[in-house]
Design brief:
This is Iron complex transport system ATP-binding protein. The mean pLDDT is 93. The chain starts with a strand and ends with a strand. It is α/β, with parallel strands linked by helices. Bound molecules: adenosine-5'-triphosphate.
Length: 254
């Protein structure tokens, strides 16, 4: 459904992404991993049309995303980015209601359905108790969950998450991952926590120095060799005794 075709990106004469090609099937949970500066956020920004590639293309259902009207694209792709916006005067409920914008005609009021969707989105993201609080006064993790609620209210078919667990305590990390995993939509998430990637992703893309180094299942990708080559760490690969999912242990000296 979503295809990235020979995509390159450069900025100020610096080559940031090099000839990246992959496709993502509907309903999959796809993780993007890679060291700092390897190009994960830049690639996601191009996919959600915040930046434009220098060459190559991104297509959704075979259509170039730059040919899809903005509102229509927002009905297809929702984003929780790394940056939280500076939105001084808005309450949490106001912000989550912004997720309904792609469905509204110019200056149209919110209807009953919008209010119901917003309430359900806040409940799912565990921010309903914050609904009347000013967004600007929330903690980093609370803001992150509000941005997730806004993305859920958008009811898109693809949810892009750029380091979604950043700022979240351990309970909320797992709560978020469980929540998005159970959504009947496609998830594309840049993740630094490789054990979360191992536990939740159907497929993982590994970025290295602006190129797609590897793509595969957690078992294919998260090997001692890849982790050493890409992240320069020693890793032991084992199984989580409770979930039976792949689990990694890291060490430098022992
Ligand atoms: N606006 C910009 N101007 C110049 N260089 C940029 C800009 N944005 C990103 N870069 C560079 O592009 C490269 C990729 O950055 P990007 O943020 O995509 O990496 P990342 O893999 O998401 O990193 P991290 O794990 O640290 O979030 C980095 O070298 C970064 O310095």
């Amino acid at each position: 459904m979503l295809q990235v075709k020979n995509m390159s990106f450069s900025m100020l004469d610096k080559q940031i992404l090099n000839h990246i090609t992959f496709s993502i099937e509907q309903g999959k949970f796809v993780g993007i991993i890679g060291p700092n500066g390897s190009g994960k956020s830049t690639m996601l920004k191009i996919i959600y049309r915040h930046l434009k590639q220098t060459s190559g293309a991104v297509t959704l259902y075979e259509k170039d995303i730059h040919l899809i009207p903005k509102k229509k694209l927002a009905q297809e792709i929702a984003v929780v980015s790394q940056e939280t916006p500076v939105l001084f005067e808005f309450t949490v409920k106001d912000i989550v209601m912004m997720g309904r914008t792609p469905y509204k005609k110019w200056l149209a009021n919110e209807n009953k359905e919008d209010f119901a969707i917003v309430e359900e989105s806040m409940r799912l993201a565990n921010v309903l108790y914050l609904e009347n609080r000013p967004f600007s006064q929330l903690s980093g993790g609370e803001k992150k969950r509000v941005m997730l609620a806004r993305a859920l209210a958008q009811q898109a078919n693809i949810l892009i998450l750029d380091e979604p667990t950043n700022h979240l305590d351990i309970e909320h990390q797992y709560q978020l991952m469980d929540l998005v995993k159970d959504l009947p939509i496609t998830i594309v998430a840049a993740l630094h926590d490789l054990n979360l990637a191992a536990a939740y992703c159907n497929e993982i893309l590994v970025m290295k120095e602006g190129s797609l180094y590897m793509k595969g299942t957690p078992e294919q990708v998260l090997t001692e060799e890849t982790l050493k080559h890409v992240f320069h760490v020693q890793a032991g690969v084992s199984k989580n005794p409770f979930t039976k999912k792949l689990h990694l242990f890291f060490y430098t000296h022992y």
